[in-house]
Amino acid sequence: MSTNARLRKQLNRELDSARSFEQWHDIAWKLDELDGNLKWRDEGATAMLHEPLIREHIRLMHSCRHKGDPAALTRVLQESLYRHLGELSNPDLYAMARTGTKQVVGEFLDEVRRAMNYICDKPQSGMSVEQKLQLFQRADKVFGRPALMLSGGAAFGIYHFGVTRALWRRNLLPDVIAGSSMGAVVAAAICSRNSKELDSLFDDPEQVHLDALRWHSPGELWGKGHAMDQAQLQDHIRTNIGTGSFREAFEHSGRALNISVSPTRTRQKPRLLNELTAPDVTIDSAVLASCAVPGIYPSVTLQARDKSDSRKVKEIPYMPTERWIDGTVHGDLPLVRMARLHNINKTIVSQANPHVLPFISHHSERGLSASVKQAASSLVHAHVATLLELTRNTWSSSTVRPLIEQAHSMATQSYLGDINIQFPFKPTLYRKVLSNPSAKDLAMYIQIGEQATWPMMAMIEDQTLISRTFRECIGRLKHRAERSRSA
């Protein structure tokens, strides 16, 4: 074995055991240097980008800033974003090097950030702070913002804690977060806490209540018709999240929580619950419903805050004739509904569903072997979907129709987004998927989540930079507008 091969093997072992992003990045940089990837990053030429035009737009934005011409800078900025955002979103740009993509991409995005900040902060003749704020808010609405979507996954879903902690510590956690089943538990725990409380949670994960699952005895199972104790799960949810409503959580944290629930009736549609669609629904009842896996837990009637009596707030059934189950059944990742309600332009998906992982573990790989795996996976997926479609039509009048509908929905829905962070396919862990984690398991799942996120960090940072800059500029403009009004 050559010296380079031995060094590469050692560095890969160190990369797999890294305990922080900084440590991981330092090792990844050495590997990229060893593999010649840093040279690839420095070379601008690639078929994936129009490098000469990108550099020309960088030059024009720089020139407009130095001439002090915000109006011209705005025009160049709009044109350059329109021309280049599509190609800059190509995931293949991030498939070569571990530490990032072409340097020209970073140079372009840095110049875009400088241009946006210049337009935000430079006074313009004939434009008040209020007018500039409205201009940025309109542009932000047109551009859109990112969302983080956390899948189901039973115990595997605890890894979402590691994913979100890794993003939070790099200031990359989106303000819009969706979750289904176990993903709903993690999403709700995050969106019901303000930044100070979230720091405390991420710094001390041992405070998390872990006893969510209790299996019924055979006698209880026969009498109740489901395998696990729902009261135990509800206690777990309330201990970790509380009993607030979607509106109260949004007002407290500033983060938009979205929880998917699936209907028990075939003619009812799945729902995405949030502060816009169901502001007074209690989060704990929504999470409980999103965790109600058929056969494992019974369906749930949602609860809502009733404020008709000013002396006492009480809970009442929400849509009392409807019952709801696991959000992964019909909408593990409610992509379309999220985009419509929150103006989402980029979806970051954290995927941990045990039945999905074997079919997507190759998704980020490149080469002949990965192509063969993708083709085989697509073929199996198509056959299963077709079989369930035929079965659904054959058994249209049967009492098993709802179960067939649920299976068909799970087989045909999308489980990936624009940027995908996935739980590694580890068959030996499947024995733990329906058991309470120990403190050691909790630390393991968190570490798996962080390690799965770090390789995607460069792509997430680049592809959400403009949205984050809009948020920062709008925040500063709001502060100035408030000072101007109070002066």
TrEMBL record:
The keyword Hydrolase applies. Residues 148-339 form the PNPLA domain. Keywords: Hydrolase, Lipid degradation, Lipid metabolism, Membrane, Transmembrane, Transmembrane helix. This is PNPLA domain-containing protein. Coiled coil: none annotated. The lineage of its organism: Bacteria, Pseudomonadati, Pseudomonadota, Gammaproteobacteria, Pseudomonadales. SUPFAM superfamilies: FabD/lysophospholipase-like. The active site is at S181 (nucleophile), D326 (proton acceptor). Pfam families: DUF3336, Patatin. A motif (GXSXG) lies at residues 179-183. The keyword S-adenosyl-L-methionine does not apply. The chain crosses the membrane at residues 142-161.
